[in-house]
Structure formats: structure tokens, C-alpha cells
Amino acid sequence: MRKIPFFLLNLFFCMMQCGAQVKVACIGASITYGHGIQKRETFSFPGQLQILMGSGYQVDNYGVSGTTLLTKGDNPYVKTALYQQALKSNPDVVFIDLGGNDAKLVNRVHLDEFEADYKKMIRAFQELPSHPRVILMLPMVSFVKDTTGIWDQVIVNKIAPKIRNVAYETGVEVLDIHQLLIDHPEMVPDLIHPDVHGSAILAMRMYETLSKKQDKAFDVFKGLKDFTKESFYGYECANFKLKGRESKVVKPKWATEGHPYIWRARFWGHEPQADIALLERGFHVVYCDASELLGNPEAIALWDDFYALLVKAGLSKKAAMEGMSRGAIYVYNWAAANPSKVACAYVDNPVLDMKTWPGSKENALKYKQEHEQFMKDYRLKTDEDIQNFKGSPVDKIEQIVKGKYPSLILCADADEAVSPETNTLAFEKKIKAAGGMITVVHKPGFKHHPHSMPNPKVIVDFVLQSTSSH
User: Fold this and answer.
1) Which residues of 25-44 are buried (b: 16+ CB within 10 A; e: fewer)?
2) Which letter does DSSP use for residue 21 in this model?
3) Is the torsion defined by CA of 43, 49, 52, 57 positive or negative?
4) What average pLDDT score do residues 182-199 get?
5) Residues 136-165: pLDDT tens digits?
6) Are strands 214-215 and 255-256 parallel, antiparallel or unpaired?
7) Which of 68, 179, 270, 386 is the most exposed place for a label (fewest CB within 10 A)?
8) Strand, coil or helix: what is 467?
9) Is the alpha carbon torsion for 366, 367, 369, 371 positive or negative?
10) What structural domains does the chain harbor?
11) Which DSSP letter does residue 111 get?
């Protein structure tokens, strides 16, 4: 038997101790390149990602200004020398940030070919010897008002859905960077390109993606039966029925440790920004349609069965709850009955006292159908029954606080449908008086709609912090 040469042994032990560098290729146009940023090699988002990742990573910037994903675009990226260099680098990870320039009027005529061109580029990287992890990035927000240029409505309504569909059909990951700077126009001085601070936000989001621990072996669908699949913004969604009720489980591209999930109470798919952002981070999104039971005992029993199914399928024993408007009733009534099973509760312009909505005399006329349903759900007959009603979240403070989980409320101060004073503010006061944890984020001047926020960072950070110990 031949002896292994000494220098090879040294090389092997060095690799074991130091680890080979992970090569990250950043593919894109001028935003990737770092247009308008001084010392772009360091302060473009690929440069800042290199700083964040450290010496164990080699982050290469292959950005070429003005390029398109479209092969028939006015400046196709696939025809550049840097594209060939990126392929030859045999990367371990590929971030692709293309599509913004495809939103220009001159390129929109070819958008029917966008998905096929994108799939071809993805295959070109996946077929490399390194078989890299490929991550698609939705185009960044554009504040340009020229409809012939990089028009944001085209990005949102045409480009982004196509990228999500490509992600769904190919199984690759997708990052929604569009939402990251949508509330920071000051970081986009020329209305298109982020400055050094905006690039730092993009780099940090990419860093989080690369740093997150993954449980790639877990597949929640193995614990489900008799379901069909569809796309939920680029993610696989299982549709099935539980006791005749529509139910859904959306799985991330990979599951994070502990298999956490956000449980949408009502209005599936409405203002889904936070749900999508959590899917990117390895959360699942779940839903069981209990409309319109308004959190009554039948709804609680249905959700108890749904929770048991989720846990049996391998999801966390602690649920992150999400309720918009009347969805808050379901969230807190179930949480009051199951305080040990809740990690946190996020509610948005919430109904927390059904005597005010839909039970009041005013709302009996304005929301006739909902008022009648409320009476039916709780077997109420008279106005006196309504006044004596004690089935709302504001009536269950002791049970809610018993769970020792935090609550976040987004409250539109000009809500014309659900009074903040008799719902959010009254609930907040009672929770605090009982020693509970609650944060109210006010939205001055906003009405009942829209829910959530264009940039859901406050919601996402709350859920991540609240579930980190579970």
C-alpha cells in the first residue's frame, strides 16, 4: 500500500480545519454592479455580502449594467462575457437579480418568453459540476414615474409573478427584495439604484438566507393525506378538507429548525407580505377555514383537530397566530382555550369585542349578514343577550395572559369599520393590567384597509423573535 504524500496530508488537514471557501456568484444588472456607489467593489451589495460572510466565502460580483434576463431584450445578460465567467467559476451559490430592465417598454413585447429564458439560465447553472444552490431575487422597487422606463407596476404585476412561477416549477428559492426598500425612497436617490445604505439592507437579507440553519430532510406533506397541490406565490401549497372545511398547508423551499409556522385565521392570501417573507425564512403557512363561525365552540373544536393534524405531521407544538380584522376573534378565542400551544399572536385592525362589531345596533344595519351570523353562531336572540355576551377576546383576558406569549397589534387610527377605542385600545389596557405582553403599532391616518404593511419587517421581526426559543 502506497503512503499518502506528506504535502497532501497537510492540504487535507488544512481543508478540514479551515474549510474550502464557498463560492457565491451574484448575477445581475446595474444594481448588482453597484451603479452610483463609491468604492462599489466594497459597498455594492455583493461587496457588503462578502464582508458579512467572512473569509469562508468568496462572493463574486458579475453585475453588468443595463442587462436583461430576456434573450431578445435590448441588452441580454446571457450574451455578456461575465455570464460565461460566472459559469466557469463553478459556484456553490447563485443569486440572480435580473428582471428590472425587462420592465422597460422596449422589452415588454418579449415578456411571453421571460419564463422560458429564465428556466434556461437556471438549468445552465444547475448542470455545472458544483450543482449550486440557485436563488432568484424579485426586482427591487422602482420609484421612476416614466411609464416607458423601469415601471414598478410592470415589475409587480408581470415580472414578479413570472419569477414566482419559475421558482415554483423549478423548485428553486426566491427572495422578495422588492419589499425591502419600498418604504425607503431616501435610499434610492436616482429612483432606481440603492445607495450604500439600501445595498446594506439587501446584503443583510442575503446574509440571513445563507446563514439560516436548514432541515432539508423534513417534508410536511408526508404527514398529509388526500390533497391537491397548487402554487402559493412560488411555494407548494397542499389543499385538502378537514371536516368538510377547506384547509391549506404551504411549505417553504426548506424548513428551518423546529418547523415553525404562521397560522392565518381568515382571509386567505389577503395582503400576504408577511406570510411570503416567513416562507423565505423556512416557516410554513397554514390555514383552516372556520368562516363564518366567529370563534365559537364549533370553530375552536375544528381548529383543535387542525392543530393536532399539524403537530402529527411534524410542525411545531407552538403556533404563531395571524388574524386580520374578524380573524383576531378566532386567534384569541382559540388561544384562550389553548394558551400553552401559542408562540405569539399578530392581529391587524382587529375585532376584539363582538358587542361593538358586528353586535351593535349600528352594525346590525350596516353589516346585516354578519350581525345575523353572530347571533346564530352564539345562539343569541335579543339585544339583552348581546349586552350580556361574554364570548369575545376582551372577555378572556385571564386565559389569554396565562399563555405568556407576546401579542402584536397593527392599529389603523382612522379605522372606520372597527373602532380602535373599543377594540384595540381597550384590549391593550386590559392585557397590560393583567401583566401580559402586548405591543401596539399605530398607523396614523389609515382606515381599516389596507391591512399589513408594504414592507412587513415589523411583523416578521416580531414573529422571528417570538418563535426563536421554541
Assistant:
1) bbbbbbbbbbbbbeebeebb
2) P
3) negative
4) 97
5) 999 999 999 999 999 999 999 999 999 999
6) antiparallel
7) 270
8) helix
9) negative
10) 20-211 (3.40.50.1110), 220-354+391-467 (3.40.50.1820)
11) G
47 in helix, strand or coil? helix
Residue 214, SS3 per DSSP: strand
Region class of 74: left (phi > 0), else alpha (psi between -120 and 50), else beta: alpha
Task: With H, G, I as helix, E, B as strand and everything else as coil, classify residue 243.
Answer: coil
CA dihedral sign of residues 377, 378, 382, 386: negative
For 123, half-sphere exposure in the C-beta direction (CA atoms, 13 angstrom radius) is 8
* Band of residue 469 on the pLDDT scale cut at 50, 70, 90: low
Residue 457 burial (CB count, 10 A)? 15
- Examine residue 416 and say whether the peptide bond preceding it is cis (omega within 30 degrees of 0): no
Q: Which residue type does 172 have?
A: V
User: What residue has cell string 368562516?
Assistant: 291
Backbone angles phi, psi at 427, to 5 degrees: -65, -45
Residue 459, SS3? helix
Closest CA to 125 of 184, 170, 188, 178: 170
Residue 56 identity (one-letter amino acid) = G
**Spatial distance between the Cα atoms of 329 and 342, rounded to a whole number of angstroms:** 15
Q: Report the helix count and the strand count for the chain, using DSSP H and E.
A: 19, 16
Give helix 457-467 / helix 273-280 axis angle, nearest 10°: 50
Q: What phi-psi label fits residue 126: left (phi over 0), alpha (psi between -120 and 50 degrees) or beta?
A: alpha
* pLDDT score at 19: 58
